[in-house]
Design goal:
The chain is mainly beta and 320 residues long. It folds into 2 domains: 42-170, Lipocalin (Beta Barrel), CATH 2.40.128; 179-319, Lipocalin. Helix content is 14%, strand content 46%.
């Protein structure tokens, strides 16, 4: 029977975590999983391998060098980022069509919700948005298998019967989670982008975002997904260089560890993975401020026409 997660599932889990010392935690977890099959998915999973098989079951290729995370959380949110190995920055000031296509093809990013059908053995990713504009609104069905500390996802077989199996390893929580970590941990939904000058006066925002998630995990990792409005679909299945460039220009995605400097009010996003090849390996420093169910992040101010301009992205918590 298909299961859609609800806020009640979160409450059930929280109540389960408050069981008396006499309760067996494994029994509580098993009961929760039986009631909500999504429980087993919750957490951060790091990409371990991508293996392709022929219709006859012959292994055709094995990729153990690409990196990425898939993150699931109650009540049914998810996000995925995958970066191909050895992505390189553009050589010149202006990318060639070949460089743009290579950058697009070597990075996957989407976010949205998920539901589980335990009888069919499938998890379905419901895409709110994707770096590929055609993916928005799609449902990606994946057969799943759990192993010891692993999760393998398999998309539907191709026309020739060939399949791809992606295996992910569960990441443990940080050994010492601070109270400040706990304030960050969860899924946050994009709310608004504000812009001010040094006097504090509001400035118009010409290009904002229409949707997005920022995700902070107990494992010490984070991921960003941001999408702009009015994106154009590809004319055909495979994009041209212009279409690929437009897709990347209207979507922001990166991932990696994060470090909190509470005394400075700064969170640092380390970016070993980034949708734009030029930012791979760089750090994004953000001033932060918590409100009532909100998190506001401020990148470093910049100079525009002799004025100091400060952006502020506000996010609303949707999952703890």
């Amino acid at each position: 029977m298909r299961s859609t997660y609800s806020a009640l599932a979160c409450v059930a889990l929280l109540l389960g975590g408050c069981a008396t010392p006499a309760a067996d935690e494994s029994q509580v977890a098993s009961a929760a999983a039986a009631d909500d099959p999504g429980v087993r998915f919750h957490g951060v999973w790091e990409l371990a391998s991508i293996v392709r098989y022929s219709g006859d079951g012959e292994e055709l290729s094995r990729n153990e060098t690409s990196t990425g995370f898939i993150i699931y959380a109650p009540p049914g949110y998810m996000g995925v980022v995958i970066q191909g190995a050895d992505r390189q920055p553009y050589v010149g000031d202006e990318a060639t069509p070949e460089e743009i296509l290579a950058a697009y093809r070597s990075y996957t990013s989407y976010f949205g919700g998920f539901t589980v059908d335990p009888e069919a053995g499938t998890v379905t990713h419901h895409l709110r948005a994707s770096m590929n504009p055609s993916g928005t609104g799609s449902d990606y069905v994946r057969h799943f298998e759990f192993g010891e500390n692993s999760l393998t996802l398999q998309p539907p077989a191709g026309a020739d019967g060939g399949v791809v199996r992606l295996t992910w390893k569960k990441l443990p929580d940080l050994p010492e989670l601070t109270d400040e970590h706990r304030r960050f941990i969860g899924f946050w939904e994009f709310a608004r982008l504000d812009r001010t000058e040094d006097s504090g006066a509001a400035l118009p925002v010409q290009r904002t975002y229409e949707d997005g998630f920022i995700i902070y995990s107990a494992s010490g990792h984070m991921a960003v997904h941001l999408v702009r409005p009015d994106r154009e679909l590809f004319a055909e299945g495979r994009p041209t260089a212009d279409e690929a460039g437009a897709a990347m220009g209207t979507y922001v995605s990166y991932f990696g560890p994060y470090t909190i400097h509470e005394d400075e009010g700064i969170v640092v996003h380390q970016r070993p993975g980034c949708w734009f090849p030029g930012c791979i390996g760089s750090d994004a420093r953000r001033g932060y401020e918590f409100g009532d169910g909100t998190l506001t992040l401020r990148p470093p101010a910049r100079q525009v026409d002799g004025r100091t301009v400060q952006d502020a992205l506000t996010w609303e918590r949707i999952s703890g």
